[in-house]
Amino acid sequence: MRVMRMAQTLSEEALREIRLFRRQYLQLLDTQHLAWPSSGTLRSYHAQEWIYENLFQGNDVEHFLPPERYRLRILKLLMSKIENSIVDPEEDEISDSLMSTLAELMFSPMPDDATAAQQRNWVTYTPLPQDSPILDKEPELKLLENRAVISGAGTTGLRTWEAALHLSSYLVSTPELMSSIKGKKVVELGAGTGILSILCASHLGAAHVTATDGDEGVAQALHENAAFNDVKDAMDIGVLWWGRALKGSWMFEKDPSFSCDLVLGADVTYDKAVIPALVSTMRDMFEVWPHVQIIVAATIRNSDTFAAFEHACG
Fold first, then answer.
1. What is the DSSP string of the chain?
2. Percent of the chain scored above 90 by pLDDT?
3. Does this model's pTM top 0.85?
4. How many of the other CB atoms lie within 10 Å of CB of 213?
5. Domain ranges for the chain
6. How far, rounded to the nearest angstrom, does the alpha carbon of residue 4 sit from its chain's CA centroid?
7. How many whole angstroms separate alpha carbon 3 and alpha carbon 244?
8. 161 φ, ψ (degrees, to nearest 5)
9. What digits encode the pLDDT tens for the residues 56-107?
10. Which of 153, 177, 257, 283 has the fewest C-beta atoms under 10 angstroms from its C-beta?
11. Residue 136: exposed, middle, or buried by beta-carbon count in 10 A (0-12, 13-18, 19+)?
12. DSSP state of 234
């Protein structure tokens, strides 16, 4: 209730700024890409208290806070920006709560860089376009991730990549796609952290979701993320190796009449070597489920690799 009353004292523009800042902060966005609130908003004591309760100490985030190193880096910059926004030192206040939190973080023991790089941390995603209207309750997905590009296990599947973020936002903001997911059966290829599968199960009303990945460790971690988002009972999770007969997979062993309406894949075209097997599996899906729709989102890091994918599809 306190947070709601506080929000009512802020202008719509100020609330939009600090909510966007919160989304990006909980997503562990790098400081240079953060949309920092304006000086006028930061000067507001109500905005500062909202930031404290919703980014650092509030009940909604205390169990899912970013790592201490990141919190300290952000709060140092934030306090500097707040101090620079002050016009009248006699009138403009600085939040004692934020100052106390900064002092606590500065004197907290921090892991070294090598240890921090191998730790899994909470990352909270809000799959909404940046210019979306303000909602009382925004859809949030909380995932445990290893933010190192290649984890200690030698896989890239323990973090969420750009194409999955864009596709999740696209699904949420496209009415035709939302209606094609509601009440339907969805399969995800190369699910990784499971952001798309969890989104379909938790917010888009899919009848059932099957999340697959080619790495057993990634699939196991995906079980944890499904449980944290309360969708474990609405999902099946398992290993699927591309290029092998679909009807010989565990999905059909569990249910010989297994069917699917929509297949999703994000950042699955990253390696030219896996493309023949990926496209073979996609072709198999069309043969087994003639009316299936397949949506693949890709970040084009190498034009030759993506061209190889397009050629294989053709």
1. -HHHHHHHTS-HHHHHHHHHHHHHHHTT--GGG--PPPHHHHH-HHHHHHHIIIIIS-TTTTTSPPPHHHHHHHHHHHHHHHHHH-S-TTT----HHHHHHHHHHHTS----HHHHHH-EEEEEE--S-TTPPP-SS---EEEEEE-SSS-TTS-STTS--HHHHHHHHHHHH-HHHHHHHTTSEEEEES-TT-HHHHHHHHTS--SEEEEEES-HHHHHHHHHHHHHTT-GGGEEEEE--TTS-GGGSHHHHH-TT---SEEEEES--S-GGGHHHHHHHHHHHHHHSTT-EEEEE---S-HHHHHHHHHHH-
2. 74
3. yes
4. 27
5. 2-115, 162-313
6. 25
7. 52
8. -105, 170
9. 986 666 678 899 999 999 999 999 999 999 998 888 899 999 999 999 999 9
10. 257
11. exposed
12. G
Query: Which two tokens mark 117?
Result: 């790089």
Half-sphere CA count of 258, side-chain side, radius 13 A: 19
**Whole-angstrom Cα distance, residue 62 to residue 54?**
9
Contact between 274 and 242 under an 8 Å Cβ cutoff? The reply is: yes
Residue in 294, 293, 290 with CA at minimum distance from that of residue 309: 294
Tokens of 224: 């944890």
Distance (Å) of CA 198 to CA 53, 129, 182, 192, 223:
26, 18, 13, 11, 10
pLDDT band at 177 (very low <50, low <70, confident <90, very high): confident
Q: CA end-to-end span of the chain, whole Å?
A: 56
For residue 200, give the amino acid letter.
C
